[in-house]
Amino acid sequence: MQSSELTHTLSFGLHIDTGSPDDLRNGCLEARRIRNEVNRLDRHGWDWDDLRSVVVDNATHVKNTSQQIVDKILGEIETYHEHKDDGWGRPYPYIDKLYPMVMNHGEGYRLFLEDEDTVRFRISAAPRNHVKGELRGSPDHFDRVRTALENDEWRVGTAEVVHKHSEWRLHVTVTHEQHHVASKNDAETIVGVDVNEDCIALTAMNRDGAMLDSVVIEYPEIKERRHEFFTKRKRMQNAGQTAFESVVQTEERDYVHDCLHKVSRQVVDWVSQFTDPVIVFEDLKDMRDSIDYGTRMNRRLHSLPFAALREMVSYKASWRGIPSDEVDPEYTSQRCPRTECQHTSRSNRQKKRFRCQECGFQDHADRKAAVCVVQNWFAVATIVSELIRR
Ligand SMILES: [Zn+2]
After folding, report:
1. What value does the mean pLDDT take over residues 88-114?
2. How far is the CA of 344 from the centre of ligand 1 (A)?
3. Is the entire prediction scored with pTM above 0.85?
4. 147-167 pLDDT, tens per residue?
């Protein structure tokens, strides 16, 4: 059975105290130049070994960083070649937005554990041009990067400097040397997940599409308490008590955080009962600005639990060797799950109740959505296996 190393990507904000954001920008501009040059030479039919050595020699980054960037770009081109029959587009020959700087720990960048609460970074935006400062991030990510720096079983791997939502961020990978996660392609049980602001619905199906079991775990208290905190903060704002306001905010964050840990443990316990499971989430990351999926989706995107809960579930699951995957969320809330019907309409859903306007099928709306998540996963798996057979 194929498996992969247990690797996590942690995301941090950068508080710079030596050097400037402009240095990072220049580093990412150089990465973009490398990216466009690699694509240009590849289209001219260059041998990849020659291409790699010429581009790395001409780049102004620390040598190891230039190598990492070239490898990332060649990886993108390789992925395109593997999937081109599936209609995947070739990477654009030229991009004009910034490209991430990819760096090796110890060469292109370095993290230092200063004390309990402080992790410092040093990024070489160019040789002898170091940008330094402190990482900013969630308590979870801090715990994990601290463990990776202190513990021999963990390795701090490559990191990328990215500019996102008008902020400079560092995405750091950490890998556990012994732990392995099962390959999602070998999964026997597919567990679809539908996350909402007051509950999470799970449906387990086997490879034949038969439902094994389902569960809806509710957490109305998170929604209620968040509403209470919101009212409390509003009152303080009106009274001008900004100092207390941030205390309330921390209290709220800690409360929600604890609840989500409890829920994610329940989810992983439930999933663990099945043979070789894979946990499938809806991929919502690019939807925020691109497509209007209606008010239900928007509410889910902007309510805190979705991203945090998903991350905690994936993290805890990977510790038990269980892989996670994601699918296109298209129509999961509107489509009838009966294979012979598939009628898709917004009016099929009335709050927590799903009732197909065509065939009359009825179910809990979120559990039904979790079934559709599994069906979307099967749809992609079928395309891939047909490609392999060809
Ligand atoms: Zn139907």
Report:
1. 91
2. 8
3. no
4. 999 988 899 999 999 998 889
Kindly list the strands in the beta sheet with 362-364, ordered across the sheet, starting from the edge strand earlier in the chain.
349-350, 353-355, 362-364
Choose one of 181, 197, 226: the last residue of a domain: 181
Integer Cα distance of 35 and 189 in angstroms: 40
- The CA 282 to ligand 1 mean position distance, Å, reads 22
Angle between helices 63-83 and 48-58 (to 10 degrees): 140
User: What one-letter code names the amino acid at 119?
Assistant: V
Model confidence at 384, pLDDT cuts 50, 70, 90, reads low
Q: Calculate how far, in angstroms, residue 203's C-alpha sits from the geometric centre of ligand 1.
A: 18
* Boundary residue ending a domain (143, 162, 181): 181
**359 CA → ligand 1 middle, Å:** 4
Range of the domain at 35: 3-181
Could you give the number of structural domains in the chain? 2
Output the CA 348–ligand 1 centroid distance in Å.
Answer: 9
Ligand 1: distance of its center to the CA of 116 in Å?
56
Tell me, in angstroms, the distance from the centre of ligand 1 to residue 349's CA.
12
Please indicate, yes or no, whether residues 276 and 139 belong to a single structural domain of this protein. Answer: no
**Same domain for 164 and 25:** yes
Q: Is 289's pLDDT higher than 50?
A: no
Q: Are strands 167-182 and 3-18 parallel, antiparallel or unpaired?
A: antiparallel
